[in-house]
């Protein structure tokens, strides 16, 4: 069975972005160039297809001339309860490095923690978790 996975079109930064996400989330990263796929519609060293598989999975490519590139408006990738609180907190801070914190990761009045960040590649993330019995941090 397969799961939904986002496929992101980058403006020539797919290798950098997908490597960043691998460093944040862990997992296995495969990068395939236009040359490997016998594509001539872009630079030979551009990424024709990149795949990060692991606890967070993403696909990415370098857009060719005329294709629209990643722009996120009114949407975020939600990582709500996808890992333990310590892991999600670490991911939030890693994604914040070079990005913009929209709403700090914090404890909410209903007891859960969440926050929003736009990372250095323009991807918007909503990260949150329910408070664990031993978790008393804010």
From TrEMBL:
Q: List the coiled-coil residues.
A: none
UniProt xrefs under InterPro entries? Glyas_Bleomycin-R_OHBP_Dase (IPR029068), PhnB-like (IPR028973)
The UniProt record lists the PhnB-like domain at 5-127
Q: Which domain of life is it from?
A: Bacteria
Gene3D superfamilies hit by this protein: 2,3-Dihydroxybiphenyl 1,2-Dioxygenase, domain 1
User: What is the name of this protein?
Assistant: VOC family protein
Query: Which organism is this entry from?
Result: Microbacterium oryzae
């Amino acid at each position: 069975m397969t799961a939904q996975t986002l496929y992101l079109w980058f403006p020539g930064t797919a290798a950098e972005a997908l490597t960043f996400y691998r460093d944040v989330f862990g997992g296995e990263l495969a990068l395939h160039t236009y040359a490997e796929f016998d594509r001539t519609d872009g630079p030979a060293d551009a990424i024709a297809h990149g795949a990060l598989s692991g606890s967070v999975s993403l696909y990415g490519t370098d857009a060719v001339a005329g294709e629209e590139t990643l722009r996120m408006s009114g949407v975020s990738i939600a990582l709500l309860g996808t890992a333990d609180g310590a892991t999600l907190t670490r991911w939030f801070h890693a994604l914040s490095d070079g990005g913009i914190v929209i709403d700090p990761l914090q404890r909410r009045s209903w007891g859960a923690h969440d926050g929003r960040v736009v990372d250095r590649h323009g991807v918007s993330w909503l990260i949150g978790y329910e408070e664990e019995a031993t978790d008393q941090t804010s």
